Amino acid sequence: DGGITQSPKYLFRKEGQNVTLSCEQNLNHDAMYWYRQDPGQGLRLIYYSQIVNDFQKGDIAEGYSVSREKKESFPLTVTSAQKNPTAFYLCASSSQGSGYTFGSGTRLTVV
Amino acid sequence: GESVGLHLPTLSVQEGDNSIINCAYSNSASDYFIWYKQESGKGPQFIIDIRSNMDKRQGQRVTVLLNKTVKHLSLQIAATQPGDSAVYFCAENIAGNTGKLIFGQGTTLQVKP
Hints:
The complex is a heterodimer.
Chain A: E1 4-7, E2 10-13, E3 19-25, E4 31-37, E5 43-51, E6 54-57, E7 64-66, E8 76-78, E9 87-94, E10 101-102, E11 106-110
Parallel strand pairs in A: 2-11
Antiparallel strand pairs in A: 1-3, 3-8, 4-5, 4-9, 5-6, 7-8, 9-10, 9-11
Chain B: E1 4-5, E2 10-14, E3 19-25, E4 30-38, E5 45-51, E6 56-58, E7 62-67, E8 72-77, E9 86-94, E10 101-103, E11 107-112
Parallel strand pairs in B: 2-11
Antiparallel strand pairs in B: 1-3, 3-8, 4-5, 4-9, 6-7, 7-8, 9-10, 9-11
């Protein structure tokens, strides 16, 4: 079955540590997105990529980095520069003219 | 900037009643609209979509209405069930915006038994 997979489901980060969240899709979608969701709030766009080897900053890119070396994969690194990283992170993919398919999310907690 | 907004942050309904969740959008160039349902701790799931050349679309127990004159989108859920309790997001695609959706803030639907 085609879908989009995020891992891990739960992630704990120590102060000053970089962590990488995985997002893989086998839907053959060109575009992929990363969103952050805080409790009781909506979705805020971190980064997006519409084609391999290219990506653009979203509304809250500071403290995050991404890569898009393969069509299927769009990992997100939360760097130590992100001072408030505790949140629920959602990855999504889409093809032109269609809606998004979302992953099941990664909950990141700073310990 | 352009945004998609919702009229009410929380909607509480009795089980079996119909629910109506509203969404206002401000960009007249939007050509595609989607409703998503997000249960606690999970990713949003597609419910129903509608393109701007339509004003109504029906699915199983759900109907989306689009009023382009007042830039208003609504999601109607018939015979609301406890399993419908979730956060509902509307999203719009602005024509020519390379497929990047703009999401509303979300409405929490609470279904009382």
